[in-house]
Design goal:
The structure holds 2 protein chains of 2 kinds. The relative contact order of chain A is 0.05. By secondary structure, chain A is α+β, with helices and mostly antiparallel strands. The model of chain A is unreliable at 225-245, 632-646 and 722-735 (pLDDT under 50). Chain A contains 20 helices and 23 strands. Chain A has 5 domains: 2-172, 5'-nuclease (Rossmann fold, 3-Layer(aba) Sandwich), CATH 3.40.50; 176-223, no CATH class; 231-359, Phosphorylase Kinase, domain 1; 365-585, Transferase(Phosphotransferase), domain 1 (Orthogonal Bundle); 586-628, no CATH class. In chain A, helix 7 (174-193) runs antiparallel to helix 8 (199-219) and helix 11 packs antiparallel against helix 16. Chain B has a 7-stranded mixed beta sheet. In chain B, helix 6 links the parallel strand 4 (126-131) and strand 5 (156-162). In chain B, helix 3 (34-52) runs parallel beside helix 8 (188-203) and helix 5 crosses helix 6 (140-151). The chains are: A alpha+beta, B alpha/beta. Chains A and B meet through helix 10 of A and helix 1, helix 2, strand 3 and helix 5 of B.
């Protein structure tokens, strides 16, 4: 689906020979994913508008429609949606009034003789096509089709689209426009066919039918092979609507259904087999396309261009799955990214075997849980992109929760992420709804209360679900770390979750168990309100440990995180937008931040506040470069003689040239260190501890002698001292190190 | 311990849970000739397969313990990126299987302690024990340790007999849950292919999940 739209900067239409116009429906857009787009556009475009005296055009017809809408009495409207719409219209009018006063908007153009604003736009575009390049912001598919056709006929640059929340112009491909037009047509046509059609249905059918035919011919488009369930009226809301008005939530109080049972069927279809499908209102047949993948429950085949077909394997053709698929097909819930069944699929004998669903694109979420894969697949991403992923995930989850659907088995294999940061949720047949349990689960995402229960025999509570949601969010923003990871565990996942010992540093709690590596730095940069929610959710002493944040709460927190990252004043540490910061967040806005002179990494060094002399100390190297050195400076930094070029010699081990003064027995400092350390791959046969140095091994090998195998063979005695359980190198306490480093700098 | 800190960065910065696999291999004199050559080829093929698998690449950590007249570590645990392919193993001496298994268990314990000390998630380890004969040392302690760990679900063990002279009764003592397997001829390649697929399958799961091993896949190279 990502290829179906193209992004442009609408500001280009504010140049003198171009025009930008806005339709009523843009101001009334209920889609929160686009919220703020207009504001962004005006922010970015105001300079250009004023320089060129080329205000954005909002015709009188649009102003009239907004005024009419805003004058309705909200207290007399039953539907929440209508109340919101009334309010939105009022807000838009106020905004347009202000914007027109400062010259950003023209709202005095128009001709009120035609009752429909759509026709007005078409007339404007026809009339001025040879004068200006024009762009109309609108959500209406009919006018989009008309203007695309007009541009094609006149061979002029006339565009239509909507704004993203970043204020970019989103333009659909010909095929995508056509597909949506077809769906709109089907929706109205079926209302008419069922005898429920009103005037609007009839007029849409009358205008769309010839329009779509012209469009198809002009752009040489094909009806997609399958007119499958995804086209069916009930599941075919326009893409930018969250769901159709008909979608009704499932029961919130259903009790668990009787146990699941395998259904009888004659055979499972394979590639190129013909199967029949049945959507909410239609049915037909289709050929299974290429096998795209095999999972734990079945195989997925290509359907038509935007759909896939899941065929269950023999153990998973069950009564629960069939009834759940039927419920979801009929539900009418649809939103981009939710791979909800759109039609039930039967084999040639008429037995239930699977379902049709929208195709997910992108990579499994595991990709962003692994720095190597993340850097390879999404090299340009920074923290705000990961925050966008969280927001996109939360919007999907929020919608499902509002329908009383519990996803149940939230895990990184059931989320797909594409380069445009769309999140797809798959595996809808495992969702818990209407008393059908989610029969599968993943321990890492299972709440303490649910651990130990059998997934298939118990209904999950919303609290169980919100534990999984919180864990997933933590892992996305922390690039894969598990919230309960800490040092000193034996890796028992169930135990870690049950303990509720969230080890990441929070406020004044001094937790020594944070995992090694950059994780503490990554955590230190997370926006405080999000950190608060994480800590209170995961730590057994937290306020939200038993009453976990809802998807809506997280959504607010992550939107605030996003705004924070974009706010240069509040977000004073540029490293906070790195995917994986390598140092703690800067202390205050006045903290000196420098690039690392050794490795060149940007903003890699932040000053360290020293309370004793009340000033910042700025280290010379970043943490990475410091750690990469075999020895800390205090242990004797190699010095290079100044003045004349020193006489050099090659190190006998590595062959690189070094000043003679640095060589010890013809070895450079690094090789000397290695030569004197014990080979951990060779263990004494008696005590099973490392016992022999590399230097010593080399001595035997250079003489073609067998390397001894025990302490006694090299005239040493086995050490009986207990071996430390951890092999990590001991790190001197940081304060001590800096103090010594400073002394060293000052020559003491 | 300077040599261990080299790998510390990928150990801690990769949050992927690890699967430590210890290959505990018989290199006694009777393995000389084609068995040891096929074994080396099989091990290297195992490394290549792990390297190529997207998931196992980040999860698997492998070491090799050999036993002949005594036990020794051929190389310690490392991620596949840091592993050199082995060029050869030398077959000579007796069959100190008890010492070999004890050493392998010790190295696994140490590795788990490293994970634990650094805060890295891991799956319970795997021990692959391969022999073509019978032990020449006392194996009672080693057997007891293995059985205790397997019963506590802290170890998965694969005892493999090579050729007709492998002492299957001894191997059976190391495998409380399933009978040991005798390799069909010198089908090391097939065995290690199966092993790499199984490691990959575990890598794709989450620690704590029950992973079903594809025991049907064993049919190609082993007789049960």
């Amino acid at each position: 689906m990502s290829l179906d739209v193209q992004l442009l900067d609408p500001v280009e239409f504010l140049q003198p020979n171009r025009r930008l116009l806005i339709d009523t429906n843009i101001f009334m857009d209920p889609d929160s994913r686009r919220a703020g787009g207009l504001k962004r556009l005006f922010e970015r475009g105001q300079g250009v508008i004023l320089t060129n005296s080329n205000p954005i055009v909002v015709p009188t017809k649009v102003i009239g429609e907004l005024t009419k809408q805003s004058r309705r009495d909200p207290s007399r409207e039953a539907e929440e949606r209508t109340k919101v719409a009334i309010q939105k219209a009022g807000t838009a009018l106020t905004f347009l009034e202000d914007a027109s006063k400062v010259g950003l908007v023209r709202k005095d153009l128009g001709d009120d003789s035609n009752p429909y604003a759509d026709d007005l736009f078409l007339r404007i575009f026809e009339r001025f096509a040879s004068t200006y390049e024009m762009c109309l912001l609108t959500r209406d598919i009919t006018i989009k089709l008309r203007i695309r056709l007009l541009a094609h006929r006149l061979d002029k640059r006339l565009l239509t689209g909507v704004l993203t929340k970043d204020g970019d112009l989103e333009i659909e491909s010909d095929q995508s426009l056509f597909d949506r037009g077809l769906r709109k047509y089907t929706l109205h046509a079926s209302n008419v066919a069922e005898g429920n059609g009103n005037f609007k249905d009839r007029s849409e059918v009358a205008s769309l039918e010839p329009l779509l035919e012209q469009f198809r011919q002009a752009f040489d488009l094909q009806d997609s092979e399958v007119n499958a369930g995804d086209r069916s009226p009930k599941t075919s809301a326009p893409r930018n609507s969250r769901r159709t008005p008909k979608a009704q939530p499932f029961s919130s109080t259903a009790t668990i259904k009787p146990r699941d049972a395998v259904l009888n069927f004659s055979s499972l279809p394979k590639e190129r087999d013909r199967v029949s499908w049945e959507s909410a209102t239609k049915s037909g047949t289709l050929l299974l396309g290429a096998l795209l993948g095999e999972g734990g429950e079945g195989s997925v085949y290509q359907g038509d261009r935007n759909t896939v077909v899941k065929i269950f394997d023999k153990e998973h053709v069950t009564r629960h799955r069939k009834e759940k698929v039927e419920l979801l097909v009929r539900s009418g819930i649809q939103a981009k990214g939710l791979c909800i069944p759109s039609a039930l699929v039967r084999n040639a004998a008429g037995d239930f075997v699977g379902y049709v669903m929208p195709k997910a694109t992108g990579r499994e979420a595991r990709t962003i849980f692994n720095i190597r894969k993340l850097e390879k697949d999404f090299p340009t991403w920074n923290k705000s992109d990961l925050v966008d992923i969280c927001i996109s995930f939360l919007e999907q989850v929020h919608l499902l929760h509002s329908m009383n659907i519990i996803l149940g088995d939230i895990n990184p294999k059931n989320l797909m992420i594409d380069a445009r940061k769309n999140v797809f949720i798959i595996d809808a047949d495992s969702w818990q709804l209407e008393g059908y349990p989610c029969p599968v689960g993943t321990p890492m995402y299972t709440s303490p209360a649910m651990l130990g229960k059998t997934y298939a025999d118990d209904l999950r509570t919303m609290e169980d679900e919100l534990f999984a949601v919180a864990t997933m969010l933590f892992q996305i923003v922390m690039t894969g770390q598990f919230p309960y990871m800490r040092t000193g565990t034996d890796g028992d996942m169930v135990q870690l979750i049950k303990e509720g010992n969230f080890a990441f540093q929070y406020e004044n709690r001094n937790n020594k168990d944070q995992p090694d590596g950059d994780w503490k730095f990554i955590w230190s940069h997370i926006h405080k309100p999000v950190k608060d929610l994480f800590w209170h959710t995961f730590h057994r002493e937290g306020k939200r440990y038993k009453k976990r944040p809802t998807a809506a709460e997280w959504l607010d927190a992550f939107k605030a995180y996003k705004a924070y990252l974009a706010n240069k004043r509040l977000n004073f540490d540029p490293m906070s937008n790195d995917v994986r910061p390598i140092r703690n967040k800067a202390f205050r806005p006045d903290t000196p931040i420098e690039d690392c002179a050794t490795c060149g990494r940007r903003h890699a060094i932040a000053g360290i506040w020293n309370d004793d002399d009340t000033q910042y100390f700025v280290p010379r190297q970043c943490n990475k470069c410091r750690d990469a050195q075999p020895f800390r400076p205090s242990a004797g930094r190699p010095t290079i003689a100044r003045g004349a070029t020193p006489a050099t010699a090659a190190c006998k081990d590595c062959g690189k040239r070094f000043p003679r003064a640095q060589l010890t027995y013809s070895r450079c400092p690094a090789c000397t260190t290695k030569a004197n350390s014990l080979d951990t791959n060779r263990l004494c046969v008696d005590c099973r501890q490392p016992f022999i140095t590399y230097d010593h091994i080399g001595w035997f090998q250079s003489r073609f002698l067998d390397v001894p195998k025990s302490h006694s063979a090299i005239k040493q005695t086995c050490s009986t001292a207990p071996r430390p359980t951890s092999t990590k190198p001991s790190t001197p306490p940081q304060v001590g190190f800096w103090t010594r480093f400073k002394k060293w700098l000052q020559g003491n | 311990m300077a040599t261990l800190s080299i790998g510390a960065d990928d150990l801690v910065d990769n949050p992927t849970p690890r699967v430590p696999v210890s290959l505990c291999l018989d290199t006694s004199g009777s393995m000389g000739g084609s068995p040891i050559e096929e074994l080396v080829r099989g091990v290297n093929l195992f490394y290549d397969a792990i390297d190529e698998d997207d998931d196992a690449h980040d999860s698997a950590e492998i070491n090799i313990v050999e036993f002949n007249s005594s036990a020794g570590l051929v190389h310690d645990f490392a991620s596949i990126e840091r592993l050199q392919r082995i060029s050869s193993l030398t077959a000579n001496g007796a069959t100190a299987m008890g010492a070999g298994v004890n050493l392998a268990l010790d190295t696994l314990d140490r590795r788990k302690a490293t994970y634990s000390g650094s805060g890295v998630l891991y799956y319970q380890p795997w021990l692959v024990l391969m022999t073509d004969g019978a032990p020449t040392d006392n194996i009672d302690l080693a057997v007891q340790r293995v059985v205790d760990l397997v019963e506590a679900k802290k170890l998965t063990v694969f005892p493999i007999g090579i050729g007709s002279r492998a002492d299957m009764n001894t191997l059976a003592r190391f495998s409380p849950n399933r009978p040991p397997l005798r390799l069909d001829g010198l089908k090391f390649k097939e065995f290690f292919e199966w092993l790499s697929k199984s490691v990959a399958r575990v890598s794709r799961s989450t620690p704590g999940d029950t992973v079903k091993l594809d025991l049907e896949g064993l049919a190609g190279w082993a007789e049960l």
